[in-house]
Amino acid sequence: MSVVAETTGRAGLPLSSARLRHIAVFATGLIFPLGLFVLWWVASARGWLPEQILPPPTYVYQTGRDMILSGELLYHTGVSLGRVIIGFAIGASLGLLLGIAMGLSETVEDYVKPLFLAFAQIPTLGWIPLLMLLVGIEETLKIIIIAKGAIVPMTMNTLAGIRGVSPKYLEVGRALRFSRWQTLRLIVLPGALPSIFTGIRYGLTHSWTSLVGVELLASSEGLGYLLVWSRQMFWLDTVIVAMIAIGLVGFVMDKGLDRTELLIQRWKRQEI
């Protein structure tokens, strides 16, 4: 007589049930894009719109394939990714420091938060006209706009995470006579980590959309530039390829952060 040990997945569900649930969620998420693709295919096949306005999927596929093989699409994607990495790193770092400062000091929050909230109410792209006058339309403009997209969600989520740390944990730190740095490193930041990761995800999403927006207005390379240039030339197949590339890159970045957060949370549980 053999004993079969049942392996469990997340939330204590049997692995088979967890997989089925994951497949069901994934399939549900595909309903809308697949439906949109079918509608596109039928519309182009039946000639509901001229090919100049709605190119067929096969034509878009061929255009995308040619752009990948020629390196054009990869070049513009690389330019956009390079910009967003630099701008996001700056904005997320400033947001983390500002959130920590306001979270640890009510005096800093009282002085800084009202002005910061006023700053946050202005849409990211609303700063472009003023910044064009101050720094021109070169890379500095793009980095500032990207950083602004990241700093607001990063600051607010870091602040919320720190304020959400249980006072009991802080009492333990005081009982153990932790220094301010030890309290921050061993208690505050680990407790605020889920909220900080939420800020990172939202910040990266805002940075990516801000980048595409500023490239639409002031750039000679990048996916945003490729999008607006193709529209001006009325190459709608290239427009669709650029849109798909923008969506895929954003999706991959979000899923990558999601996976990283799960790995860190798993590591924390193992440490405990």
Automatic annotation (TrEMBL):
One of its GO terms (biological process) is alkanesulfonate transmembrane transport. GO terms for cellular component: plasma membrane. It is found in: Cell membrane. It comes from Rhizobium hainanense. Residues 77-254 form the ABC transmembrane type-1 domain. The keyword Transmembrane helix applies. Belongs to the binding-protein-dependent transport system permease family. PROSITE patterns: ABC_TM1. InterPro entries: MetI-like, MetI-like_sf. Its main location: membrane. Keywords: Cell membrane, Membrane, Transmembrane, Transmembrane helix, Transport. Probably part of an ABC transporter complex. Probably responsible for the translocation of the substrate across the membrane. It is a multi-pass membrane protein. CDD domains: TM_PBP2. The chain crosses the membrane at residues 23-43, 84-104, 116-137, 143-162, 183-202, 234-253. This is Sulfonate transport system permease protein.
